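From the pipeline queue, job 12 of 40. The input is one protein chain; the requested action is below.

Action: predict structure.
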Amino acid sequence: MNEPSGLRIALAQINPKVGDIDFNVKLILQYSNRAQQEYQADIVVFPELALTGYPPEDLLFRPQFIHQVARSIEFIQAHNPGLCLVFGAVQMIQDRLYNCAVIMQPELPVTYYHKQYLPNYGVFDEQRYFVAGEDACVIELRGVHIGITVCEDIWYPQPAAKAVNIGAQLILNLNASPFHSSKTSERIDQVRQRVAENKVPVCYVNLVGGQDELVFDGHSFTLDAEQNLVSMAAGFEQTLSILEYRSNIGIKSLTQSVAETEDLSQLYSALVTATRDYVFKNGFQKVVLGLSGGIDSALVLAIAVDALGAEAVQAIMMPYTYTSEMSQTDAAAQAEILGVQYTQIPISQPVESFKAVLEQEFSGMAQDVTEENLQARSRGVILMAISNKKGAMLLTTGNKSEMSVGYATLYGDMAGGFAPLKDVSKLKVYALANFRNSISPAIPQRVIDRPPSAELAPGQKDEDSLPPYEILDPILELYIEQDRSVEEIVKQGFDEESVKRVTWLVDVNEYKRRQSPPGVRVTQRSFGKERRYPITSGFKRN
């Protein structure tokens, strides 16, 4: 006789849309039906705020949004396929809003768990919206006592301990944990601490997909009571992971797990996922970008093709007097390799027209960066016109190193709808380009090997205006991501004048970054909602 099965748990790693409650309801019911019909699951667990998408931000201040959530919970309850559902939502009680887990068991009233720890750092702003809960939640299903926690709760000892103290044999943790490099290992290490303290398994289910500046990587996982990793879902895709729990044996995986991938693979997948979701979730079906023959635009083109497909991407080369034949040849070669529509539009006519219009105004004044910026702005106008006419989102190609020090032109190469490399340093751009070529040919090797140049003046190289990226990028990381002072950075072995100049450039270019398009966060400190520095400031860096 076959031994009866244990408690079968499905972890649904899904990609909801912020604010699209109807879409998210369908997604929750679709995966609930799959969990029951394909895997005979007893319980299916979804991520934090799966019903609203994460983060819903100030949508939470709209009463009709809260009412939609409440009605949708009733709808899901009425259409429950017959298993226990646990999903993230919000609950309003007497003008107090809670970030909660909704627990639906067949033939029982709906119950709620209120998140106890509300993060209010980095990209998180939950104390703006929510009230913290206090009580543990443990449900019984097929004789197993299951504790429920939400995201940040698992980073502190108390919530899991409270649940175990009232009988939990297993913890389910619902998450909306955004990606940054090395985040997967950080999560596992943190959950291991909770397992070590409580000696019970933890199932960690995470969101996947892009949302504005954030991207969620999934990588849902389970640790058994001995802290062993028994399952991990694939990153950056929707999945169902199936586990079985028996009180006398513990927990095991019934579906294939994946190994943790190395950092460059995860980083590239994050950029592709974020670009795809930003474009599609905002109603666009195609993109356009300026392809200069340089490394940044080459990498963005590869990301765009991998995210959307070659048929949805158009590359525009806009040569001028200082554009080398090498750049034009390499740009055309890459477009051919990736199979994208490629157009060449020379900009001599608009640039010379602008110069003629301004000739009297600039009479007696020497040429300077103004004339260089006319080239970039002419390109920006052309690209935005194509974007307008064809309904294609314009992707900008600047990287974090350039954005940090203002090595970009307002209303020129900064024009666009989304910046895939906004949080990617120049050195990391090179590493990613080589990584992408290791998968299949995508970027001509000469593009990677040649010295970087904006090609806005004869013989121009980036190092004419900036320290070498091998020096610049570490200084930027120390100043921007680690908040180190000039003195502390100099003690790391960097030239004092270089450090003072770089940090000054970072601070005085805040006004530019405030006008730049959004880009995906992939480091622990990105420009945007995470790093909120004043434009007008008398702060002394020393």
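Job complete. The two ends are 76 Å apart (CA to CA).
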